[in-house]
Amino acid sequence: MFSKNKGLSEIDREQHELVENAQNRIRQKKRLYAHFVIFLIGSVFLIIINKVLKYGETYDWFVWAITFWAFLFIIHLINVFITSPFMGKEWERNQREKLVIKQKDKIARMKAEIEKEYPIPNPKNPMAE
């Protein structure tokens, strides 16, 4: 009776983690697409301000503003489609497991050193010391 629930909770936890990761990726992509739409609308707005409203018309400053914004958008794009999948949840999990193994090994070595330097006396034979 209780064994069924144990297996189910493990599967539920894994499925929950998968769903959570999928939701985070969807959120990242949604923000990227929103950034792209805002970039397009903002670029048109900057051109209109410079050319139609003649604000700072002696110099085409909108080119530099749009170039800088495009650079920021490209960084966002790289983060979502290249960096995030490469260094996503699976990568974090692997790094965490490696660090835990290193810590356990270090603790085991320290414990062995301590036991070697300060051996635990045998309670059956107190004269052996």
- Principal-axes geometry comes out as elongated
Q: Helix-strand pattern, N to C?
A: HHH
Strand content: under 5%
Percent in helix: over 70%
Low-confidence stretches: none
Query: How many strands in all?
Result: 0
How far do the termini sit from each other?
A: 53 Å
Report on this model:
- With 129 residues, this protein is mostly helical.
- It has helices at 2-52, 61-86, 89-117.
- Helix 1 packs antiparallel against helix 2.
List its salient traits:
single chain, 129 residues, mainly alpha
Strand and helix map with partners:
Elements: H1 2-52, H2 61-86, H3 89-117
Helix pairs in contact: 1-2
Can I get a quick summary?
By secondary structure, this protein is an all-alpha fold. Helix content is 82%, strand content 0%.
